[in-house]
Structures are given as structure tokens and as C-alpha cells.
Amino acid sequence: ALAYALALIGLATLARIWAGHMTVLFLTTLIAGGGIAVGQTLLPGLVRKHFPERRLLVTSLYSLGITLGAAIPAAATAPLRNLTGSWQLALAFWMLFAVVAVAVVAPIARKSAPSEKPARVALPWRDARAWQIALFFGGESGMYFVTLAWFAPQYEDHGWSPTKAGLLLTLLSVAQAVATLVVTWQAHRIHDRRPILLGSLA
Question: pTM score, two decimals?
Fold first, then answer.
């Protein structure tokens, strides 16, 4: 399922080469967002299954990958647009990240495929803890993606060039990457992690 989610993200990103109309741009964003939502849900379980002794390290690494996946395009998309003369092509270029991710995940997915049909698990509609977790991480992800979407345009509205605004967003993402590594590295020493979660929202 994770490989399919990554493939969906890659296809939606590639489809932006035809995003001359705003409707196509929003549609591809919606499809890619669905793939991201599925992928981010499945990744922790994959880490626990294949890296039980190093789950904090691997979690910090994939979190770093997510952050760099936002930082690098933020810095390079405007120069790519200047180089190619097409912002659609500059956006579609980043489907290469998804291709690499599928190439890495697909062999693991084949090895972890269940030999028997898995037992059906009831959805936790009445589980208060499940709703709390869903609302917390849903809200956190919503704030993160809103920041990614509107941070650079806000500075462009104040006279910054797209390249400079993108570089500023990259610096923000790099700072977040450093914070992610530090917090994840220290998390195993703290029994009650609720202050960390609350602090991350500050």
C-alpha cells in the first residue's frame, strides 16, 4: 500500500506538466495530498515492523527526508522555471523523488507481503484516544502544509522575488529538520512526551 501511495504522489506530480489550468493544479494537489496522507499513516507501522530496535533513528531519518523533500524543491523550483521557461515542467520535475522512493520501498513491500489473508480489524470509531490522535496530527499536518503553501507567496506579495522567497522557505525547512533530529534523538530519554508534542505546536 505504501508503494502505491508513493506511485500516486509521483503520478500526480508528473501530471502537473499539464497544469496550465487552475482546475488541474488543484486536482493534482488533492491526489498528491491523498497519497501523502496514506503514506504518512503507513510509515510508522513499517518502521516498527522492520526496525524495532532502531525505530527512533529511522523515524528521525524519514522525518528528515520529508522535510528535505519540501526544502529542496522550495529552493530549486524557481531556478528550474527560469531554466526551462515553464513552471509546469519545473513542478513536474519533482516526481523523480517519488520514483526513487518507490524503488526503495517496493523491495521491502514485496518481502513484507502477508502469506495469509490478514484478519479484519474493526475501525476505532468509538475510541476516544484514536480521535484525539487523529485530531492532533491532522491539525498539525494541516498547519504544516498551509505554511508550506503560503509562506513564499506572502513574501512575494511584499516584493521578494520567487527565488528569494523560495530560499527563505528552504531555510525554514532546514531549521525544522534540525529540530526534528534533536527532538527525536532526545525523545527516548523522556517517558512523558506530551510536553514535546505541546511544545511543537508553540
Answer: 0.72
